[in-house]
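Final report, Chapter 2: Outcomes

The project's central promise was a pipeline that accepts a single protein chain and returns its three-dimensional structure in a standardized token representation, suitable for archiving and comparison. That pipeline is now operational. To close this chapter, we reproduce one record exactly as it appears in the project archive, with the input sequence first and the structure output second.
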Amino acid sequence: MPVIGLQQLADHTSHWVHRAESGTPVVVASGRGSPSYASIKPLTDRSSEGEKPKALAAGTAPKRRSAASRGKNRKSKGHRGVGQRTEAVWTVRELNRQTHAIMRKVRETNVVAVVTVSGEPTVKIEKVDPDALAAMIVGMSSEYRHSMAEAEKDLASGDAKTLDQFIDTLS
């Protein structure tokens, strides 16, 4: 799982969106002083759950806005409530051109940004708690996964002992 900077996302937006879409989560670190983190993950198939973003409910690509209206009324277009979170729909082109503003919105509010490629929702960008990020990184570590698999085998075969059994053997 790559951890990239905000400027790296801005410079290579399409690359990182497509990489996340293919199943490799990407973490974006941003902010000065106390960093904040956001993850770019593939969008799960939500159509069966009826959770398709309103702007894409009809299965059509987002409509282009005129130059005069671009950026205006962003709060009312393409947003929908999900519990206490809201969801905003952005095209990969908008993410490329407005990376810093979109990531600031994700970081400061609890907005989940859904990114579309060719009109299809592909990935979501959401804020990540630093503790959850640490757990994600440890969980992705090959050493950790290997040691957990070994421990599971020992438990299944009966070779592992409980802590109490181990302490009794020391006495």
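Archive annotation: Strands lie at 3-5, 26-30, 36-42, 79-82, 85-91, 111-117, 120-128.
This record, like all others produced under the grant, will remain available to the consortium after the project formally closes.
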